[in-house]
Known about the structure:
Layout: H1 6-12, E1 16-19, E2 31-35, E3 38-41, H2 43-62, E4 67-70, H3 74-87, E5 91-92, H4 104-123, H5 131-148, E6 160-164, H6 170-179, E7 183-187, E8 198-201, H7 207-241, H8 246-250
Parallel strand pairs: 4-5, 4-6, 6-7, 7-8
Antiparallel strand pairs: 1-3, 2-3
Amino acid sequence: MSQVSMRQMLEAGVHFGHQTRYWNPKMGPFIFGHRNKIHIINLEKTVPLFQDALNFMSTLSANGGKVLFVGTKRAARDAVREEALRCGMPFVNHRWLGGMLTNFKTIRQSIKRLKDLEVMFESGGIERFNKKEALDLSRERDKLEQSLGGIKDMDGLPDAMFVIDVGHEKNAVTEANKLGIPVVGVVDTNNDPSKVDYVIPGNDDAIRAVRLYIAGTADAVLEGRDTAAGMVSGRETEFRDAPAGRDQAAS
């Protein structure tokens, strides 16, 4: 099972919260103290909570579930895309579009438009348009790709959402809450953990910390999938090696 140690968290700066004057009192149980007017997060709380979150997402993946990775802030953008692609999960790493989950039917129409444009460019169909029209269509495709490219293969709503900075992604969290989709979220000392099902108390700004959470999540998803594949393979082996039934033995 994927694990992240306290040493790794310390080295990545997971324990550094925000300035004490910006704190959210609901994060009090996860705060160790403060140093130079900066809150220090209690990693003895973070380590097991992160492990719980990883176990949840690994089990979900083993059962064929989909985890939507969400991180649109600059510190998270690249890692969200890279790690989601690595583990084959959908992602949003640019602006969250209102209704991305709660109005998924309409979003699907935009995804279809994106796929139609991709086919048009790949097949050479774009050549029947004049230069200006082709440029406009190219810009439309690029805009749709930036907004929806990470979810264009998502057939339906995700089974869980993994979020970097629940304050920055409050609209995504609100939509997930409305639909009863479990939220796994990195929550810094200035944010509200009450809307998050699996709270990961930690620094949501430092790039090393952000990459640690995202890579750990991708590893957990992949391990869950491998576990499921191993179980299927084991059952097939047992079936092949099983003794012949009475009908077979009689013949």
